[in-house]
Fold these 3 entries.
Entry 1:
Amino acid sequence: MARFESVENGFHILGFRIEEIHAIYRVLAAILHLGEIRFGMENEEDGCSIKNHDELETGSYGFSTQEDNQNEDEVFNGVS
């Protein structure tokens, strides 16, 4: 807990507003959630699918996006 308080104090010393600090924590949490997404291969041609949509939904919220705006059903190997 002392490390968290040190980081929090550092933000205040550097002049971050509380809203900015919360945004930093929200993005950090989103990154951690997105790191937990599991993918499964449907077949080699179509890419893969997301197996745990709850982590995608939680991670998307942290970036202030909507899950349905993302291609949640399939993740392709290439970029169109």
Entry 2:
Amino acid sequence: MHTACAVQPVSQARDWREWIENLREAPLFWWLDSAEVNPRLGRYSFAGADPYLVVRGFGDRTEVEVRRAVRPDLEPGKRVLRDPDIRLSGRGT
């Protein structure tokens, strides 16, 4: 398997805020934060930036953008897939 991922545990809220502030300046920053108060279900947040691959869905159209070559089976560039069976929105299923 080919992938690019780094994991950095952050133990204190101050460290987390500093890390996010630095990361958000990178291209295509994203942050998934659990708003759940329950410590068992709401203890994880995920953030990242500068992905090598971006998938965008618009009804029956899906765009796949390979931003840089990090896998031998994916060439950089954008592809548009059109298929009524491809639905990311959940409508029509």
Entry 3:
Amino acid sequence: MDQISQTLGGQLAARAVARDAFSARVDFTIDTRRMHYDNLKLLAPFHFRPRDVIAARDLLCAGQLGAGRLINAQRSLAELDEVFALLERGAALKCAVIP
């Protein structure tokens, strides 16, 4: 497990798990005065805005993404545990869950 520790002007210290997602709580401190007056921004490395989701849906529905190449497994809703196991093992990139 990789840990990242970064200092910004001696005020910002953060620890993060360098993986697909955070697996535990991460605490950090920041000088809010400096953040405000120096116009610093704290950005999350991963986030979908509602308009991004809508645009992606529109592209998928229009068939413009070729997303079928990414979906290399298919399971029923009753096999949801197996879906997560496939993804965790890396045996599937994306899995279509059919109700």
